[in-house]
Write a structure and sequence with these properties.
This protein is about 70% helix and about 0% strand. By secondary structure, it is mainly α. It has two domains: about 120 residues, no CATH class; about 110 residues, no CATH class. Helix 6 packs parallel to helix 8. The N terminus and C terminus are likely disordered.
């Protein structure tokens, strides 16, 4: 159940805090809530009310809740912080992404950072891609870098795909490369041996360098042949 709630938070990065709170609190609720309440619905309403200010003072109120022991409360706080331009909000999300013990919470924080796109936020995504111990978090970091849209990160993703031992994370990196370059790279054949998988990644890495240079130079990508299996 908690993983589902965090997943809802990640989706909410795309549709806004209003939908996130509607999903978690439910329609028809009124009042400003209470940040200290033991009722998650009351806390969610209070977070929404505080977030409407959008400044550092509001972020200071919400920041501790991003570390809340209740994953639902943490997810609502993370969604709220993702929508706030405050530097304090960014700092809190970075801290959660690197220190929280729950992979699903770190994953939600990375999704939020990808939406913000500040240089330091993207640095946290790059760090998570190489250092986080949870495969699902590394996958989120890869896809988050792709959503952020920095073309230079194709090389970061290619390097990650080359050294990644988890095939799902490696494929997330490949998907991210395709998104950044505007091309569709083929999925791996599940019958491949580990050696064949490594060869495939090496071909992709070589192609990535060429495609990235072409894109920077304005060369159309549509007619290129891409590495298959």
């Amino acid at each position: 159940m908690r993983r589902l709630v965090i997943g809802m938070a990640a989706v909410a990065m795309l549709v806004g805090i209003g939908v996130a709170v509607a999903m978690l609190v439910g329609a028809g609720c009124s009042g400003s809530g209470n940040l200290s309440s033991s009722d998650p619905k009351e806390v969610a309403k209070a977070i929404q009310a505080a977030a409407s200010a959008g400044d550092d003072r509001a972020a200071e109120k919400i920041a501790p809740l991003a570390h809340h022991e209740d994953a639902q409360t943490a997810s609502v706080a993370i969604v709220a912080l993702s929508r706030m331009p405050s530097q304090r909000a960014c700092e809190t999300l970075r801290q959660v992404a690197t220190t929280d013990q729950r992979p699903e919470v770190r994953q939600a924080a990375l999704a939020a950072l990808a939406q913000r796109k500040e240089p330091e936020a993207l640095d946290t995504l790059r760090e998570a891609l190489t250092r986080d111990t949870a495969p699902e978090v590394r996958s989120e970091a890869a896809l988050g870098l792709a959503r952020a849209g920095n073309i230079d990160d194709v090389h970061v993703l290619a390097n990650a795909a080359g050294r990644e031992k988890d095939p799902k994370v490696a494929q997330a990196a490949v998907l991210g490369i395709g998104r950044l370059l505007g091309v569709k790279l083929p999925p791996p054949d599940p019958k491949m041996t580990p050696a064949q998988q490594r060869e495939r990644i090496q071909r992709i890495q070589a192609t990535v360098t060429r495609l990235a240079n072409d894109k920077k130079n304005g060369i159309p990508q549509g007619s290129c042949k891409h590495p298959s299996q």
